[in-house]
Amino acid sequence: MTGLAFVSPWIIGFCVFQLLPICLAFYFSFTEYSVLESPLWIGLDNYAGLVRDPVFWKATANTGVFVVLVVALGTVLAIGIACLLNTNVWGRTVWRAMVFLPSLVPLVAAAMVWMWLYNGELGIINRTLDPVLGAVNALLRTDLRSPDWLGDPGWILVSLVIMTLWTLGNAMVIYLAALQDVPRSLYEAAAIDGVSRFGRFRHVTLPMISPVVLFNVITGLIAAWQVFAVPYIMLGPAGGPGRAGYFYTTYLYDNSLPYLRMGYASSMAWVQLVVILALTGLILWASKRVVHYQGGR
Amino acid sequence: MARTSGIGSRAARTALAALIAALFALPLLSMVLTSLKPTEQTLADSAALLPEPLSATPRYALDNYIGEVDDDGIVIARGVWTDPIVDFPLFFRNSLIVAILSVTGAVISSAIVAYGFARVRWKGRGPVFGLLLATMMIPFPVLMGPMYIIFKQLGWIGTLRPLWVPAWFGVAFSIFLLRQFYMTIPRELDEAAAIDGCSHLGILVRIILPLSKPALAVVALLQFIAVWNDFLGPLIFLQHREQFTLALGLALYQSQAGNVPWNLLMAASTLVVLPVAVVFVLTQRTFVEGIATQGLKG
């Protein structure tokens, strides 16, 4: 009883702020609910509507591409940078802090800063790129132009991915801690056996940090799927030209309050919950053969 | 500690590390420097990073923040902080209220709940702890619609309550973190206290908490960052401008004023980032202390 008493605040909070909303969303997802009037039972209409809704598919496709790019590139870059900053480089605590800090920046401020950097005429990126491309064009008689980062539907996803990779510092720090836990004796043994540098990374480092990679991939996936604030601010509520920056959470948000279609939004919420659970399960299942747990399972 | 098995020489690797770190630092550097420039310079052709008149008239530097006052003390230009349309001091105050209430709540409640998971044996503890870990995976967008309905029923929409009350019921990740930390504290200490007649609450307050300061500081820091950075929560639950938090206010500033000059927008962004940066610098020592404490147990 004492234990339950200590834990009771969380149990109450869980029931009121998580379990109840999830159950309500399940119920709402079978209703037409404008918030202003009571919910009206419509069966599976919301889910059937999702299947036929081109905006839903556009938002889902954008989100899928974004998630895959951010998780894949983010994992490779974060591990790479962590490995580099784990070696005996001079001033490494400074470099570590510099890479980490952007992950603490409030997303709204980060969005403002990157709008400024991406600005077509005044932004620092194109101001740096323009002269370089000019020289290349003069030399090779090509016609390369700096991208219109936030104006060209073909570039918007790329711009958002680059901006998101800027915040990989958090994952980098977690990898760094994992790398420091790898026993040196393993590297020494491998070196004595004549294993190459790449071989040591492949057969010592990667297996030893693989549980952490798994953790970061799953949390990264769940976080990336929720992308909202940055495109919402950078490109406006509609997601920019051709809805290229319109994402799952943006549509979910739009349906719930601005459009007052809480039932439809709730069906999206449940689809998201099921997709996240399925993807996590899939990753956990697929990782069984790859992830190495010390001392067996 | 240092390993020499990396690729390339030490100097080459240092150069690469510096280059990467510079790329990560550039956006924030550009933000701060732009915030110090007069408008004409942000529109000029030169891509100069440094604000030009900084050397000539240092007084310029903070114009974008606090406005410009002539020699007679009359306001010539408004800065971000003194903007008549968008009230940043008010947003700052709102963010601070939410941050203080929610950090306090998260620390107190998580510290209590974690004790129940780490130190008290009870039936079903394992499964409930598993449930706690699983809830960390639930995305906020899934909950936000029904939460809005619940808060509306409670009459909380249009107040700051939806942003800080839930933190008083424990934050899953903080509970997990504190539970892991409590487990490293030797049980002999609370057994001795129990023999002396100390209750569970007494053990928590007198033995566990004083030893857990570094972990509690980490919990406070994480909660502060999460609340200060939150955008979607305030966007849904707040209605009146008087309640806006800084993150929401910054978005309002950008959309409302339409063509906000970049230097002013960067000044406003710097204001939002500044508290986080200050907290990070101040708590770095706590982090080191926390790591040192954990190192001692071995």
In short:
The complex is a heterodimer of chains A (297) and B (298). Chain A is an all-alpha fold.
Q: What does this protein look like?
A:
The complex is a heterodimer of chains A (297) and B (298). Chain A is mostly helical. Chain A is built from 13 helices and two strands; from the N terminus they run αββαααααααααααα. Chain A has helices at residues 2-28, 45-52, 54-86, 92-100, 107-118, 124-140, 153-165, 169-180, 184-192, 197-225, 229-235, 248-256, 262-287; strands at residues 31-32, 40-41. A two-stranded antiparallel sheet of chain A has the order 1-2. In chain A, α3 (54-86) runs parallel beside α7 (153-165), α3 packs across α8 (169-180) and α3 packs antiparallel against α10 (197-225). The longest helix of chain A is centred in the first third of the chain and has 33 residues, at 54-86. Chain B starts with 9 loop residues before the first helix and ends with a helix. Chain B has helices at 10-35, 39-43, 63-66, 88-118, 125-135, 140-154, 161-164, 172-183, 187-195, 200-211, 213-229, 232-237, 246-256, 262-296, and strands spanning 68-69, 75-77. A two-stranded antiparallel sheet of chain B has the order 1-2. In chain B, 66% of the residues lie in helices and 2% in strands. Chain B contains 14 helices and two strands. Chain B has a single domain (88-296), classed as MetI-like (MetI-like fold, Orthogonal Bundle), CATH 1.10.3720.10. Chains A and B meet through α1, α3, α4, α5 and α6 of A and α1, α4, α5, α6 and α11 of B.
